Amino acid sequence: MVRFENVGLRYGLGPEILRDLSFKIPAGSFQFLTGPSGAGKTSLLRLLFLSLRPTRGLVNLFGQDVSLLGKDEVADLRQKIGIVLQDFRLLDHMTTYENVALPFRVMGKDEASYRREVIDLLKWVGLGDRMDALPPILSGGEKQRAAIARAVIARPQLLLADEPTGNVDPTLGRRLLRLFLELNKSGTAIIIATHDMTLMDQLDARRMVLHQGRLHFYE
After folding, report:
1. Which pLDDT does position 10 carry in this prediction?
2. 89: Cβ–Cβ under 8 A, 6 or more apart, which residues?
3. Of 46-50, 138-142, 169-173, where does mean pLDDT reach its minimum?
4. Are strands 2-10 and 64-65 parallel, antiparallel or unpaired?
């Protein structure tokens, strides 16, 4: 599903913040991405989501060399990927329900075909009473849960999550991990970037550790 070969990334004329990254992500796999603050975890997730292009090296997603893709082809690939970033990127003029339903709307689906699914997921993540609220009045934890629900609602082939339990209590964190596991069982490959050792210890999954711009792997 994902193949990196000798990938490097720098911003502007600065030094490389990621270098010589070579790895594969099999379909249906589950892994944690960790490392110290500033190691480049978010930048790596953005490379995977195609919102950044590498300075050098090969990035291959779903069998396609991303350097050869046009704008429309990149947009098509992104529909296979769910992403939760720390800035959440909810649309302020849309309700919580509308934000979570957005992937289905982009696909052109009729609301009747997904309304119940969206409502059920919002209840699962504890937002059943916030469906009509706009993002500016949501708390940080509520925004995070809405972003997670939006990322998983359409069952993407690849899910990227940056500190998805960072603003929730341990009980809800375990609930969200169960949601990720159920999604993984249905075939979604998952990469969770986190500093939370307690979260990682709950699951026997590969750990990808970024240190000084390089990746190290622990099975």
Report:
1. 95
2. 147
3. 169-173
4. unpaired
What band does 11 get if pLDDT is binned at 50, 70 and 90? very high
Distance (Å, whole) CA 51 – CA 57: 16
pLDDT over threshold 80, residue 219: no
| Max CA pair span of the chain | 51
Distance, in Å, from the CA atom of 217 to the CA atom of 14, rounded to the nearest integer, reads 26
Distance, CA of 196 to CA of 180 (rounded, Å): 15
Bridge partner residues of 98 (DSSP): none
Long-range CB contact pairs, 119-126, < 8 A, 24+: 121/149, 121/152, 121/153, 122/96, 122/97, 122/146, 122/149, 124/175, 124/179, 125/149, 125/175, 125/176, 125/179, 126/172
Give the closest residue to 164 by CA, choosing from 33, 43, 51, 49.
33
Question: What's the pLDDT at 175?
Answer: 86
Identify the CA nearest to 56 among candidates 9, 113, 109, 22.
9
Q: Is the dihedral of CA 136, 137, 141, 143 positive or negative?
A: negative
- Give CA–CA dist 165/167, Å, rounded: 6
> Over the stretch 84-98, which tens digit does the pLDDT of each residue have?
988 889 999 999 999
Phi, psi angle pair for 13, to nearest 5°:
-100, 10
